[in-house]
Amino acid sequence: ESDTASEISFQFNKHKKTPSIGSHSSDMASVSSVSGSVLSVYSGDFGSVDAQGTVEFALDYDEKSREFQVHVSQCRDLAVVDEKKGRSDPYVKTYLLPDKARMGKRKTSVKKRTVNPIYNEVLRYKIEKMVLLIQKLNLSVWHNDPLGRNSFLGEIEIDLASWDWSNRKLNWYPLKPRSLSAVNGVDHRGVMNLSIKYVPPGSLGKMCPKNPPSGEVHIWVKDVKDLLQLRPSGVDSFVKCYVLPDTSKKSYQKTRVIKRDTNPVFNHTIVYDGFHTEDLKDACVELTVWDHEKLTNHFLGGIRLGLGTGLSYGISVDWMDSTQEEVAFWQEMMSAANEWIEGLLPLRSL
Length: 350
Prior knowledge:
Blueprint: E1 4-9, H1 26-40, E2 54-62, E3 67-76, E4 90-97, H2 100-103, E5 106-107, E6 118-126, H3 129-132, E7 136-143, E8 151-159, E9 171-174, H4 180-183, E10 191-199, E11 215-225, E12 237-244, E13 253-254, E14 265-275, E15 284-291, E16 298-305, E17 311-312, E18 315-316, H5 324-335, E19 341-346
Parallel strand pairs: 1-14
Antiparallel strand pairs: 2-3, 2-9, 3-6, 4-5, 4-7, 7-8, 10-11, 10-19, 11-14, 12-13, 12-15, 15-16, 17-18
Organism: Alca torda
GO molecular function: neurexin family protein binding
Subcellular location: Cell membrane
């Protein structure tokens, strides 16, 4: 059924409140940093103030240095966040969409106690022009709160494919409220086709030579459709897998890299043993898709299979956040022992 099979064994540590970080691989460090970047485009307080005011900026592309430049000049008439003190501490943040993880965010300095901040700063992206033209620029203004959540003050989104690149002048643009889809993080990243199966301990009978002494979770990653195309040549993608809360090297597995294909076929099976049936309520299978490059890998999207309760062995964790589709998929596996459960699940920001 698959051209590659991996089997690893581990035991969950139910007594520690947080997973051990001593054995994190360099790949896991990459997961942590990139996931933080992806989340930050959607994190913050969107409902405390109404978006208002304008922002002045200009766009340019330097052919010699192959650099996209956002000249952020100033803002006017921003919303007041702290009404008692009559103050806002605004800064400007930019992303290239939909490729938030790869390009990362850029932001200006924070200007304190003003609704008319002046920046005169240039935010720079090293990127090929033909790749830039399949992106959108998201420019947003935020109030900086060092003790809490930053407050959203407004945004503008520009389709760079239709931008007039002869226009290098500073222009004013009205700030708009965040759309509901953006707040919820709804962006199409592709769909993963996979099957999963749970084999309870001793369930195959004494006469079966492969009867597991402990339970096993089988994960069959078949293919992914409609990945983000980061380069004109396509995407060099692979899939990483962890069973949380274990983030050690023995929990880490990955597929081979499929080159230059936005619809890669992996056909890769992973088997995790050491499972007891009660572990299924507290564990979470995290599958993430990455674009492979020489210097660093770039996050494309992922899924988390679990009950989505927010708890693992009684401890509150942010990764137990499965969507309704992911929860239903996991529950079906739990209720149908020894049967392959097949599904198509949308990739998302984690």
